[in-house]
Design brief:
Blueprint: H1 2-9, E1 32-37, H2 40-48, E2 57-61, E3 64-68, H3 70-73, H4 83-89, E4 94-97, H5 102-116, E5 122-125, E6 129-133, H6 138-144, E7 153-154, H7 173-195, E8 199-204, H8 207-214, E9 222-224, H9 230-236, H10 248-256, H11 262-267, H12 270-274, H13 279-289, E10 305-315, H14 318-339, E11 342-352, E12 361-368, H15 383-400, E13 409-420, H16 422-425, H17 428-434, E14 442-446, E15 460-463, H18 470-481, H19 501-509, H20 515-524
């Protein structure tokens, strides 16, 4: 009986009172800044064309409004609206196609570069957000800042210039956060000077809280959250999905336990959460509900994956699938050229329409890329390499979609991952003969919803198997190396002239599409 009482004592049911923050194991030593660019895509377009600044502007992808500037928002046009709906609300709306992300990626990199001039501890989140841990650079800013005033807003206060309250904590977090607000202001000012882009910012002692308060005052403003106001912030949230890091799939699982709101999650026992989640996830969920987050700011290097996707209402034709993958591959190779690294894995994804799920079912497959494909680097990718990659794309596609039956797809995606630097790549060809065992396609069945952001908890299963056919691997290697022979129409291999799409797909299955074939199929869709 005593053991049972002790176990229950470790799983309290309670709601955080006003001073409970002092009793919780929160670390107030850090100062984290979350930066979020205001209507990012629209701002990039306004920087490129300043005449758009005072006009209602929307950036679209397909039939959806991905964002709009504040002029358009004041006239009733919101992001994520259907284009038809937006034009009905505002016929004078100026629309720009945002399908090509080149300019947005470039501006995003420039913003992150500015932030890194203040601290190396910078983590990118998508194209328009950055976390910065400025804890180690605060000393100079503490001396510069006014201990009784703050740059920007204080969460819970109506006036930004109001004299600050005292420090009930006593650990020094008050002066650190005041200094952090000064750093945030200077970072935002430098971003405007360097890029013309304004940002809002949140300043707090962890990533979760900084992100939650960064959007309280927009645009081009910032908000500081002191630890003694964390309970007020968390209790102001309603549904569990309002907590960053808890996505739609996680919310549904929580709802199965009768947990719908943040307060429900705060009052839940670990025993209840353990019925659906492992120990680590259960504890993290409870911590997040109280505003506790010890996740570090992870320095972002170059992206681990370079990918593109195309979403649509319906694709049910193999010809259209091939056309869209060709277009995505061409765009992806341009991004790969800009990046400069050598990919070792190709990943292909589809989203299948499902009447039972709002966003359908995603499924992906990936396969190793032969080292010979990029033997000359990624700056000048030849038609042979393009053809071989396209073969692999369609081979992976057919593993996911049975084209002998009717199919309904709403998204196609292609990406490169598991990059290696040029120096290590140069040795990979020789290693191929002695060490490399070509693994067969690594299969991943991923069920996720489009609306979930980076950082949400997702579940997936990975299955892999090893193909011991060294002869087959060697044949593929030699075939892809032989630019002037194997793929030459004069060598007797492609003497039949152009082929139809079905012939192409048939050849795709055995890796035998040649240069002439690839040019022919490209021409059909240009």
């Amino acid at each position: 009986m005593l053991a049972q009482d002790e176990e229950e004592a470790d799983e309290p049911h309670f709601t955080v009172p006003g001073d409970a923050w002092m009793l919780l194991p929160a670390d107030h030593r850090r100062v984290i800044i979350h930066l979020d660019a205001d209507c990012f895509y629209a701002q990039v377009e306004m920087v490129r064309d300043p005449s758009l600044r005072d006009k209602p502007l929307g950036v679209k992808q397909k039939n959806l409004m991905v964002t709009s500037n504040y002029v358009a928002r004041s006239m009733g046009v919101k992001k994520s609206m259907w284009i038809k709906e937006a034009l009905e609300a505002l016929p004078d709306l100026i629309l720009i196609d945002g399908s090509d992300l080149t300019h947005y990626r470039q501006c995003s990199s420039e913003i992150s570069a500015v932030v890194r001039t203040f601290t190396v501890d910078v983590e990118r989140l998508g194209l328009d957000e950055n976390f910065a841990d400025v804890t180690e650079i605060l000393e100079d800013y503490i001396e510069e800042s006014d201990p009784n005033k703050i740059e920007g807003h204080v969460y819970g206060d109506k006036e930004p210039d109001e004299t600050l309250p005292g420090d009930p904590c006593g650990c020094g977090c008050r002066e650190r956060l005041i200094a952090g607000a000064l750093v945030a202001k200077k970072i935002r000012q430098q971003i405007v000077k360097a890029t013309g882009i304004t940002c809002c910012a949140g300043v707090a002692h962890n990533k979760l809280l900084a992100k939650l308060v960064s959007g309280y005052y927009k645009p081009d403003q910032q908000t500081v959250l002191f630890p003694w106001l964390v309970h007020q912030l968390m209790n102001s949230l309603n549904l569990t999905r309002s907590i960053p890091g808890i996505g739609s799939t996680m919310c549904k699982t929580l709802e199965e336990l009768g947990i719908h709101t943040v307060k429900d999650l705060q009052n839940s026992s670990l025993a209840l959460l353990h019925s659906k989640f492992d120990d680590e996830t259960s504890k993290r969920l409870r911590d997040l509900s109280f505003g506790i987050d010890d996740a570090p700011v992870r320095r972002s290097g170059r992206p681990q994956t370079i990918g593109l996707e195309d979403a649509f209402r319906k694709v049910n034709s193999i010809d259209v699938v091939q056309s869209k993958y060709l277009t995505l591959l061409e765009r992806l190779l341009k991004l790969l050229k800009e990046d400069g690294r050598i990919p070792s894995t190709l990943r292909v994804c589809v989203r299948k329409f499902d009447t039972k799920k709002k966003f359908g079912n995603r499924e992906s497959r990936q396969t190793p890329i032969l080292p010979s494909l990029f033997a000359s680097g990624v700056q000048n990718v030849g038609e042979n390499t393009r053809a071989t990659l396209m073969n692999q794309v369609m081979e992976l596609f057919h593993k996911m979609v049975d084209t002998s039956k009717e199919f309904h797809l709403t998204l196609l995606s292609i990406g490169f991952t598991k990059f290696i630097e040029r120096a290590s790549h140069e040795n990979s060809i020789s290693r191929f003969f002695f060490k490399r065992k070509r693994s067969e396609t690594e299969e991943q069945d991923i069920n996720e919803e489009k609306g979930e952001k980076s950082g949400h908890l997702k579940s997936f299963s990975t299955f892999s198997s090893v193909n011991n056919s060294k002869i087959h691997s060697l044949e593929l290697y030699l075939e892809s190396c032989s630019e002037s022979d194997s793929y030459s129409s004069e060598g007797g291999r492609n003497t039949q002239g152009s082929m139809n799409i079905k012939d192409m797909l048939s050849k795709s299955h055995n890796h035998s599409i040649g240069k002439k074939d690839f040019k022919n199929i490209k021409g059909k869709f240009q």
